[in-house]
Design a protein that fits this description.
The structure holds 2 protein chains of 2 kinds. Chain A has helices spanning 2-28, 134-145; strands at residues 39-45, 56-59, 62-73, 76-83, 94-99, 106-111, 124-125, 127-129. Chain A contains 2 helices and 8 strands. Chain A has an 8-stranded mixed sheet, with no helix packed on it. In chain A, strand 3 and strand 4 (76-83) form a beta hairpin. Chain A folds into 2 domains: 1-31; 39-133, no CATH class. By secondary structure, chain A is an alpha/beta fold. By secondary structure, chain B is α+β, with helices and mostly antiparallel strands. Helices cover 59% and strands 20% of the residues of chain B. Chain B has helices at residues 2-24, 26-43, 53-67, 70-78, 80-83, 87-110, 169-178, 182-194, and strands at residues 116-124, 129-137, 143-153, 156-164, 167-168. The N and C termini of chain B lie far apart (76 Å). Residues 16-24 of chain B have low confidence and may be disordered. Classes of the chains: A alpha/beta, B alpha+beta. At the A-B interface, helix 2 of A face helix 4, helix 5, strand 5 and helix 7 of B.
Chain lengths: 146, 196
C-alpha cells in the first residue's frame, strides 16, 4: 500500500514536469496553441534586411504583433504580420523595417495614418520603406565623393 | 451555339488584352512628361538671368502643381492631426506645406545640371494606386533610386509620396508632425516658410 503511494507521487511529479516543459516550449518558442488571435496584414518590401519570423511589429515603440511569415514574391520580400484585433491600421499607414540600435535585430514599425478606411484582415499595407542597407550607403558615399 | 459562345468570349478576351497596355502605360508617361517639362524650364537659357529667377520658379512650381496632389500629401503627412482640423485649417496647412516642399526641393531642382533620368518600371493595382520607379544618375555615376507613389484621379495620375533611396518623404514629415501639437507644428511651419 505504501509502495503504491510513492509510485503515484512520482507519476504525478513527472506529469507536472512534462506540463511545465510543454508550457516553457510554447512560451519561449513563441508558438500559438489555440490558433492565432488577431488578424493578418501583408506588406511588400524591396529589402527585408534579414527580418525573421517572430520579429516584433511595433507602433509608437509599443510591440503589438509579430512577423508570421516571410517569402520571396517577384524578387521582393512579402511579409505577413499578425496583429491583435483591437489594433486597427488605416489604409495610409506606412510600414518600415528598422534596426534596434546600429546593428541590432530588425523589426517592423508601423506609422499610423489618418485615413477613414481601416485595413481588413489579409489586406496589404501599400506604403512601405525597406531596410537601410548600411554597406550600400557607405559605397554611395565613397563613390559619390570621387 | 458553343462555337458562338467561344467566339464571343475570345472577342472579349482579345479586347481586354489589347486594352491593357494602353491602360498600364499611363503613370510613367505622365511622370515623364512633367519631368521633361521641368528639365526644359531649368535648361532654358532665356530664364537663366537673375531677374528672371522669380518667373522661373513660378513656371517650375506650375509644372509640379500639375502632377502633385498637395491635399493628399498634406493629409497623409498630418495623419491623425488631419481629422481634427477645420476646413480653413486644412487649406492653410496645404498652402504652407506646399511652400515648405517647394523651398526644400525646388531649390534642388534648380541645381540640375544634366543628370540622367532612367525610367525603370511602373506598377498599377486595381484600386487606383500605382508606383513609378526611376533612377537618377549623377555626373559621378552614382545611382539614386526614386519611387513615385501615384493615385488616380479622373484621367490623371497624381503623386502623393516620393521615396528616395527607400526613405519616404511623407513618413519623414509624418513622424516629425506626430511629435508635437498642431498649434506648435503650424507655428514652426510658418516660421520656416517665412525665413528666406
Amino acid at each position: 500500500m505504501k509502495k503504491f503511494d510513492i509510485e503515484l507521487a512520482v507519476g504525478l511529479f513527472m506529469v507536472a514536469g512534462i506540463i511545465c516543459l510543454g508550457y516553457l516550449t510554447i512560451k519561449l518558442g513563441k508558438m500559438e496553441v489555440l490558433g492565432d488571435k488577431g488578424y493578418e496584414l501583408q506588406a511588400v518590401f524591396a529589402n527585408s534586411g534579414g527580418l525573421k519570423n517572430g520579429s516584433p511589429v511595433v507602433i509608437a515603440g509599443v510591440e503589438v504583433g509579430r512577423v508570421k511569415h516571410i517569402a520571396l514574391d517577384d524578387y521582393e520580400a512579402k511579409v505577413v504580420m499578425n496583429l491583435p484585433l483591437d489594433v486597427k491600421i488605416q489604409e495610409d499607414a506606412i510600414a518600415s523595417i528598422k534596426t534596434k540600435g546600429l546593428i541590432g535585430e530588425k523589426f517592423v514599425e508601423i506609422s499610423v495614418g489618418g485615413s477613414e478606411r481601416i485595413l481588413e484582415p489579409g489586406d496589404l499595407i501599400r506604403e512601405t520603406e525597406p531596410a537601410v542597407d548600411l554597406e550600400q550607403l557607405i559605397s554611395n558615399y565613397v563613390f559619390g565623393k570621387l | 451555339m458553343s462555337i458562338n459562345l467561344f467566339r464571343v468570349s475570345l472577342f472579349f478576351f482579345l479586347t481586354l488584352v489589347m486594352a491593357l497596355p494602353s491602360l498600364a502605360g499611363q503613370p510613367m508617361e505622365q511622370i515623364r512628361e512633367t519631368t521633361d517639362k521641368i528639365i526644359s524650364i531649368v535648361g532654358d537659357q532665356a530664364l537663366k538671368s537673375p531677374e528672371k529667377a522669380k518667373e522661373r520658379k513660378r513656371l517650375i512650381r506650375q509644372a509640379v502643381d500639375e502632377r502633385f496632389d498637395w491635399e493628399e500629401m498634406s493629409r497623409r503627412s498630418l495623419a491623425r492631426h488631419w481629422k481634427r482640423r477645420t476646413e480653413d485649417e486644412k487649406k492653410e496647412f496645404i498652402y504652407f506645406f506646399g511652400k515648405l516642399l517647394e523651398r526644400t526641393y525646388l531649390e534642388q531642382v534648380e541645381n540640375y545640371s544634366g543628370e540622367k533620368v532612367l525610367y525603370l518600371n511602373e506598377t498599377v493595382d486595381g484600386k487606383g494606386f500605382g508606383d513609378v520607379r526611376i533612377k537618377i544618375i549623377t555626373k559621378q555615376e552614382t545611382e539614386i533610386p526614386v519611387r513615385y507613389k501615384v493615385k488616380k484621379n479622373g484621367d490623371g495620375w497624381y503623386v502623393y509620396d516620393i521615396s528616395v533611396e527607400g526613405r519616404s518623404l511623407i513618413n519623414n514629415y509624418r513622424k516629425q508632425f506626430q511629435r508635437m501639437s498642431y498649434k506648435k507644428l503650424i507655428k514652426q511651419l510658418k516660421a520656416k516658410v517665412a525665413q528666406e
